[in-house]
């Protein structure tokens, strides 16, 4: 199956094969696809690194922050160091490299974990809302809706997007209105 990114078909199996052949790492951006599957495989489980966002509008949120997953112990240690200002383990305020303060508080982690435990329930509700929007909007002329599903995936409705056809006399800003 092919994933369509920026209008170009991308087959994940072929992409992984090309990356391995050329010694390249594959970084999966799972920010809007947490809980989604691609051809029966959970998104975020195929690459060398998977990046998740827990911003407020995601399926799982802790208010801000995110998560990186990887199977390589050395890479995981490097990521932990970078997220913690590259402090040396033995000497807290001694740095050998530049890093960031991307630590997540225990409170934020608890909120995120509670949402992960209810992810399937949240995704079911998002799909129900998406199907409702689809039923109300499918006959509206001048718009194209995202499909409910394709052969390799079901829409998780991170957002409900529409595409305005070229003959619609307003632009996206006008359609969105003032919030």
Structural class: alpha+beta
Uncertain ranges: none
What would the CATH topology of the largest domain be?
Aspartate Aminotransferase, domain 2
Order of helices and strands: EEHEEEEEHHHEEEEH
Instruction: Give the count of structural domains.
Output: 2
Helix count from the secondary structure assignment: 5
- Average of per-residue pLDDT values: 87
Distance linking N and C termini: 39 Å
Question: How much β-strand is present in the residues?
Answer: 15-25%
Please compute the radius of gyration using only Cα atoms: 20 Å
Rough shape? globular
**How many beta strands in the DSSP annotation?**
11
Largest sheet composition: 3 strands, mixed
Major β-sheet strand ordering: 3-6-7
CATH architecture label of the largest domain: 3-Layer(aba) Sandwich
Helix % is 25-40%
Give the full name of the CATH homologous superfamily of the largest domain.
Answer: Type I PLP-dependent aspartate aminotransferase-like (Major domain)
Regarding CATH, which class of the largest domain?
A: Alpha Beta
